Amino acid sequence: MPLPEPILDDLRFQKDLVDEARRRIIRYCPDWTDYNLSDPGITLIELFAWMTELIVYRLNQVPDKNYIRFLDFLGVRLQPAASARVELTFRTSVPLPIAPGDETSVLVPAGTEVATRQTEDEPEIIFTTDARLLIAPPRLTQLRREAADSAAGDDFNKNFLPRLGVEPFYAFGRPRPQPGDTFYLGFDDQVDLSGYILQLVFTCEETQAAGIRREDPPWVWEVSRGNGVWEELPLSTRLGERDTTGGLNNAQGSLVLYLPLDLQPDDVHGRRGYWLRCRVEQRRPEQGMYRESPRITSVQAFALGATTRATHAVAVRHETLGISNGEAGQSFKLRHAPVLALRDDERVEVEEMIDGELVFVPWQTVADFSESGRHDRHVTLDTATGEVHFGPCLRQPDGSMRQYGRVPEAGRVIRMSQYRYGGGVAGNLPPDKLQVLKSPIPYIDRVTNMVRASGGRDQETLDEARMRARRELRAQQRAVTAEDYEHLALAASRQVGRVKCNTGAPADGRPLPPGVVELLVIPAALDAVQAGDLSRLQLDPALRRTIEAFLDERRLLTTTLRLREPTYLGVKVRAEIVVNAHSRPEAVQQRVAEALRRFITPLTIRWPPNGADGASPAADGDGQPTTPARAPLQGWPFGRHLYVSDIYSLVQQTPGVKHVRDIKLGSRLLTPSAEDARAPADDVTLDDRRVIETPPDGVLCSLEHDVVVVAL
């Protein structure tokens, strides 16, 4: 139970001030007999009572101020804003290579700025690339074939690429292709194809597409991710990039593939390179089946661009903070704040004389000066305010003075090598919003974000810091109990949305071995989830490493840490409703669908019941509030079942709904890394089930809901 907050003065305006003063009138002023509100004396009493109440209010803020000051003494600092991250796709103005044998490459430097279009109402939002991107012509070196049936003759060891132009290459088995027949395209591993937009141009002997449908051939394209792992790649359907090969039956055609960012070279049957393969696989009867193998006479590979990661941040380099006066405890302030978490190459630098030459020497950024000696080059940085502090000189209990950290010499320039500012939920942009290249790059025609940016969170509020301080004081930076692991994992990064320490059976159904601690982590991707992009619930490898490194310093040596995603269960609801006579059916439909999305969600909803600033809830076209009832403020609880009665109650309480005629539920398992995380819920079977059971390690997500307006 928390300690009760003391009320230093409990006087109230009417009861204790105005009424008490009126009762004393007869004693001190017996000739005053008019106590009506219109009397000027009563007006003066109310005025002084109001002024007194203001003083009482300010007095009662003292405990709150002291509480914050105590947190400051404990070293609690506001956590900086988290930056949204996105994959930016740069497209070249001409396919590479420009001409046969041409080695022209395109370089996109690290820190390249890409922004949204600025309008009168919306300021520009800038993202910067995280690493250098080199787009070089791909080098196709191998063309091989593998039959599904080894008895048919497996000639993978033969490279058919040098023979093209002399004899045609039969892509699949002869005389009649079989399911599983595959041909491979191998690329030189000296050219990193990670994130490439790869165009394959085929020249074939034209046939009548015997047995197949040209627009939908029975094949699957896959790419090797390394270590023998193959991933299916969908062919691009964007304008100008559609498959025109007709299943390799047209005389000339091309197709475009978007390669993954984490692509790795692999050994396929002892031959190393970047590998693509096309495999015969009939998934729908209407696709048909090859009655004869396509015959390829030429194949060429071109790079149309590439994708790289970017962060919502603006980089500032070599900003001068000031000049040292030679005293202890100096402080300087950066021009921009709040500051994002510093990288290894982002440090405070101080001018020092080294071998007779003035050079800038980097100083180490520490959390505090408690372990700093007088010769240690240590500074602290408050990321919330952008203040840089040098070590103080403090008197010790024995009367001596101790210097914590080194003091810069007088007259020396102090600068910041680099820092980044930005972040926040403003960076969670929808697709195709980042299109403005701040500085031109040769051979780059345009840039865009093909996927939604996610992961941006605002700087920690004071109330959040108070709650975090309570958790940290309870855990004492040591992970022992299940709650300790959950609280510390949340403190590891602002990109962590929710954490649950799994004490039940894991996803494979087997009990956890002794000493194993399993954490279920949901990333902070609220904007993407609300927009229907459930792929952002995937646990990013970088975030996984951050949490593991943070907890490794605090866990017991006898425990083994395991991180994974929870089991996501997508839910679709079909609701038949009757609307009120004076409500617009379209507005009510939208209101119900929004209520369902906010109710069935794995992440914390952002809005409070009365708005973040105390305003009334948002209203729709009918003037009705859109705030749904009974929405789970912390996201759907782990392992909680969904009952149809919950949906009936939620929909019935939505403004504008007169009756709920029928509710049908459907569900399916979701894998955030799979393509079905972005797909509609057309394949979900709806029925009259009364409950959707959730596994102990599972949470529910909303798929596309159907809200139908019917008449009685």
Automatic annotation (TrEMBL):
Domain of life according to the entry? Bacteria
Q: Where is this region: Disordered?
A: 609-628
| Compositional bias (Low complexity) | 609-625
InterPro entries to which the protein is assigned, alphabetical: CHP02243 (IPR011749)
Which NCBIfam families does UniProt cross-reference here? putative baseplate assembly protein (TIGR02243)
Record's protein name:
Putative baseplate assembly protein
**Source species of the chain:** Candidatus Thermofonsia Clade 3 bacterium
